[in-house]
């Protein structure tokens, strides 16, 4: 089962969690106090560079329909769409640049280059997902209503096609994001408010329709006026650019939410949740991936997903420096800091989807201690006094040490070598 008591799982006392909140609040305050012209210049230059890339891509497509020009234009346009989606649209709509008071770069006015309405996304993502992160039954991003991403979700027959569904979702990811707010499942089950559903459907249809006209009618028609291009060449290039953006967005987002170590929670976790407990849930429920400057930028700085979940409205260009301090906090309280190479993290999400296409009876691990989900029950055989100061090393023992102890014991039991059960009390 998913985590039902985050304090017990984390091996932290109430005082620890209060102190954790104070330290994380201090990081937020430092960044807010230091925001300024450097940050404003960053987002303005990013927007200018993205628009230049988009214009370049469209000029290449207008210049000719030869294979080399076509691929160059489609790829350039795809990169421009990735930047607009990940580093600009996603982050602007989170309110990361609202402090600038620039009406053109504000969460309330930005409309991104996707079929989904920004208004809908701000609700399903900014409010629902970030408030109820990884809480089963409340955060629709846990599987998007299609994928089985944890053993806590009951297996259904269509889950056998988990990999197929994710491939389809990845290719058309913008449509998955756009349709999420419609709550189609509730409509079919008769649990949705009809009037509200009609409004959402009308708003969705308007935005999706405009996007389809722009990508597959207006721009192809415009470039077809060039003697070197055709309507079809631009239409197919736009479709490829959208798929490039969709595949990349899906990969980045899945790396932040579904690799090993990104925990899931039950509804009981949010009852009476303090600020410190909310911080803790964000840290435990997210995952990072290692990235250099280029990969950081192309991921919208969501390689720092842990930091983004802690501070969703702080500028994305500051997450790298925030990550250094957050990692220090994790080390101080002996909390895991889940990260790894991009391709490894992404491969783990596909491995999880492959395994969970099968019912639990065919899986080796249980829902209390599996790669994609854990609960406080995995520590049942640890003595209550495990957390605290290790008498041998003088270092704090918390969740990270507890997980290592249990995993080491389990490996030893499977292989017949290693620590015995009694060693868990050490």
UniProtKB/TrEMBL annotation:
GO terms for biological process: lipid biosynthetic process. Pfam families: FA_desaturase (PF00487). It comes from the Bacteria. GO terms for molecular function: oxidoreductase activity, acting on paired donors, with oxidation of a pair of donors resulting in the reduction of molecular oxygen to two molecules of water. GO terms for cellular component: membrane. InterPro entries: FA_desaturase_dom, Fatty_acid_desaturase. Residues 69-339 form the Fatty acid desaturase domain. PANTHER family: DELTA(5) FATTY ACID DESATURASE C-RELATED, FATTY ACID DESATURASE 2. This is Stearoyl-CoA 9-desaturase. It comes from Mycobacterium ostraviense.
